[in-house]
Amino acid sequence: xxxxxxxxxxxxxxxxxxxxxxRPLPPSxxxxxxxxxxxxxxxxxxxxxWTYHYSRTTMNWTQARKWCQTHYTDMVVIQNQEENDxxxxxxxxxxxxxxxxxxxxxxxxxxxxxxxxxxSTWIGEQSWxxxxxxxxxxxxxxxxxxxxxxxxxxxxxxxKCANGKYPVCYQGMYLKLFM
Length: 179
Ligand SMILES: [Ca+2]
Known about the structure:
By secondary structure, the protein is α+β, with helices and mostly antiparallel strands. The chain has helices spanning 2-12, 61-71, 81-90, and strands at 45-54, 74-75, 100-105, 114-115, 142-145, 156-159, 166-177. It has a single domain (2-177), classed as Mannose-Binding Protein A, subunit A (Mannose-Binding Protein A, Chain A). The site of calcium ion has 8 residues, from β6.
């Protein structure tokens, strides 16, 4: 029930820990494991949350996703512009390439860009950097996010999946709420 999830998120704002960002249901997690429960003894309730994580080592896109799945839940999935901006605000700035891999990809130039996990095709009006996606040489099927201090901060660029960039992952979790 999506309403339950939203309620849990708004209640949980009062206890949000520094590294935890409360988010809607992580898209690649089995929903049945993520139903919040309330009125359990001394807990005021539980809520869904996820934390973001990144590597300080660059990897190609496939290695990056594997790294995320090994250490966390999966590579990050972005569901709206607000989430995009929040993520960017939490990642260390880079002065130049390489930037960070995010979990949107395709297998062929004629395919639609698709997010891993939930198969969402969300792309915001402001998502792509100027003149992107340019599909340079028809071989750019993965996406990096620019995290810098310039005008393209938080914008996306399609890139060759074999290039090395820093993985961004998320870890889904329950939060216990005290009132
Ligand atoms: Ca490009």
